[in-house]
Input
Amino acid sequence: MTKTLVVAEMAVREMARRRVVLIILLLLPLAFYLSRRGDQLGQSIRFVCLGLGWALSTAALFAGSAARTIEPRLRLSGYSARHLIAGRLAALWAVGVLLSAPYFLLVRLDQHDVRYGAIAAIMALTVLVSASFGLALSVVLPRELEGTLVLLAVVGLQMMLDPDDTSARVLPFWFSRELATYAVDHTGGGYLDRGLLHGVLAVAVLTALVAVAFRVRQGRRPHLRFEPLR
Amino acid sequence: MEQDRRAQWLRGVLDLCVLGTLAAGESYGYQLAQALDAAGLGPIQGGTLYPVLLRLQRAGLIAARWRGGESGPARKYYRLTAAGETTLRQAATDWSGFAGRVGAILSTGGTAVRTAAGGAQ
Amino acid sequence: MSRDAGGAPGAHGYRRGPMRTDGWLAALAAELHRHGLGSDLTGHVVAEAAAHLRDSGESPLAAFGPPDTYAAAVAASVGGPAPAPRGRVVGPVRLAARGITKRYRRRTVLADVDLTVRAGEVAAIIGANGSGKSTLLRICAGLARPDRGTVRIDGRLGYCPQDGGVSDFLTADEHFVLIGAGRGLDRSAARRAGLGDAAALDWAPKPGVQARHLSGGTRQKLNLALARLGTPDVLLLDEPYQGFDRGSYLDFWHQVWRWRDGGTAIVVVTHLLNQLDRVDTVLDLTRAEAAA
Output
């Protein structure tokens, strides 16, 4: 437990030191929000949640990539994969909550006649999905540039694809639009159920992907054995 | 005299000069430096002298002991050992022979240059 | 020898201009210690220099030059550092590598290499560039896989690469806590151990300075301190002295001997040969044979 906490603490410290990146990430969802605030109030909620997802996924991607150089040493020092993954995810969740809180407040104060509970659910699931998504990209792809391009593609597709199209459900943030529809347009429970299910599934799949990819990248080392000699 | 060449020559003979100076009696570092200076070798820096003393001590040609304390601070005094005396005697002979031969070449060579410049043979 | 009156500090880090005698003598003592002179001889040399300065009234830099230059001259005259105290107990085997073979595409980098290191021993791996020194060490550290062969290690393992191994946005203190937690050390113990190893390499980490703001040589000192944190039983060092100045390089070898005397099994990859007469095993990969 201590090991996981230390990993999480250091991950948060690392992220907190990158001031410029943090400021950009903080303001990105705001830009998304304001872009639709004028005429389509409901759309602005959908956009701000997408913006949050993009910002947090980017933060997760860079946090994961930055840790690469020190990972062999961490492994040698006695950290197992689950410490490293759990610790980083915990740090990203903490940062995600801090990033989302002001935006939830913004929606609470600026928007009326919407289901706030559902919006809170969107943001919570977004934090969880983004953390695992960004981390997965950092583990699977060799450098941040490739990861950023994939993120761009995903967010772009998320905005362009018709959510009713079945292929749109493959995208990790599809739940965001379903739940937003439920919250803004006061539709029936179907949207809520589908949205929640997709969100939970996305978290599970992406987190499993992180675990598997991490183990694969660390590689087995069958030639090395720790045992008493003679 | 050209500084670099003088330094080169001194590097070759400093340890022998130290042996020669110690033949007169026990002495300590600064006193030795002053004696060598007075003998015409010029000022010898401590950074040059003490490593030489260490080498001679390690080779067994000189021996050292700490003295003083009553009339002043303790100082490390050096004296010649029997091996050192032998080495000094041998070196003195070797050196006069060597220096004589070098001197002959330099003076002959000088004459040859003057003769050649004069055009006579 | 000519020497300008104010001394020529160069890259030693000593102040320009007249140096107070006490400071100069203290620096001389430290430099002599670095060169491995015994404390008796160091005391004599320093006392004699002090007496000379008293008698002559000269400034230390004028009479002797910078402390490290004079110390080097003294060390050269004395004939190198004191020999290792014999009767040092050598312990059980800690690292046993057998039959390590590695090929990169068509080229055979390592061919059936064996290496055995016991607790309290130092092994040096030497060889030309590209002879597979770093590869062998990485295989022993478990960071690369050989095509054939096994590595068995009894105890905990520490590894210091030529660079890297450090997180840019964390401070030295945070590194110590992070690695220490992995080794089972609590925060204060980890900090103390890390700062101790740093001090032995002549580095006092300033609080709040991130690793990316450290110079290359200082980052490597951090790298080395982290490898050593938690006193592993086996220490694999791949030319960790990149960017070290001459004094730190000597400090590094001092640490190696001290860790060895403490029972660690150490493997050092190096192509600087001047310390080889003090190691226990030399593995020359260029000639692909082990010399004991």
Summary: Chain A touches chain C through 31 residues (CB under 8 Å).
